[in-house]
Fold this sequence. Notes:
alpha/beta, DNA polymerase, domain 1, 3-stranded mixed sheet, 10 helices
Amino acid sequence: MNSIKGKTDIRSLSLEALQQHFVTMGEKSFRAKQVYEWLWKKSCVSFEGMSNISKELRKKLEDNFTINAVKISNSQFSADKTIKNSFILHDTHLIEGVLIPTTERMTACVSSQVGCSLTCKFCATGYMERKRNLNPDEIYDQVVLLDQQAKQNYGIGLTNIVYMGMGEPLLNYSNVLKSIERITAEDGLNMAAKRITVSTAGIAKMIKKLGDDQVKFNLALSLHAANDEKRNTIMPINEQNSLKSLAEALKYYYNKTKNSVTYEYIVFDGVNDNIQDAMELAKFCKHLPCKVNIIEYNPISFASFLNAGEDKIEAFAAYLRKQGIITNVRRSRGKDIDAACGQLAVKEKAAVAV
Length: 354
């Protein structure tokens, strides 16, 4: 249970646990439900703001609990209207999240860890140290703040959420699933699970666990090569999670959930951009219903990869489509403010605790 200065983080408690606390404090348990609604349905981040709670009870809450609210530290606006945010956590750690507006949707890209323990060679976050996992409320707060930002700047709320920010979601499995539970719950943000996508670098045993838990949200696999030798060099995690083990895990996941999978594939110049690579990817796609998102590479200072030429990308996509595979080419958003896929890496330092 998370606590600060002897106080319990109230959002770490289930409704049942909160009700028990209220009984211990000499309060009626139904008051706990009112407070719980303020916390999750109304996204209230101060006890003072809970207007239908008595001043006496608000004082008790203040004395016993804390709300470790996430706050926006800095926002950058891209020429394409993407907004990158640096969020400051209660312990002064910084993470990043991105609001991505398009004509069809308003997407929040959220982080699941402070830094990352994986070392994917193309990803700026992979060059950071992993400090800790995010708590469910810290992930939830990012969604709330990005939703508010969407309404303030573009007049509409979020339509989609992608767990594609900093960190590997499946290495923070429990907290990620709890955050999605709060985001999708009727007494939470009441967002449809089908509008949420969790992206993983590929951890076979945790993909199977998603199947066992029969999750309703979408799963995306950051693939980038359907050849073990190549994928090992791009994504070292492949050495412990080979394509064979991933294929088995994904088939298991599909059999349990009947959810198709999205493969994310960045086309690097001279690395994984030829027709042989496309043939290997097409073969990998035959394991279960899926689609492929081909993504432009966004250069980072740590790596020497280059984006493949437009002709190579189009030829690659055309081959996959000829094989009957649903294929989308995704153009980069927010590249000019380092907000695009693979570019998230906190550059500023937090000076003071919030």
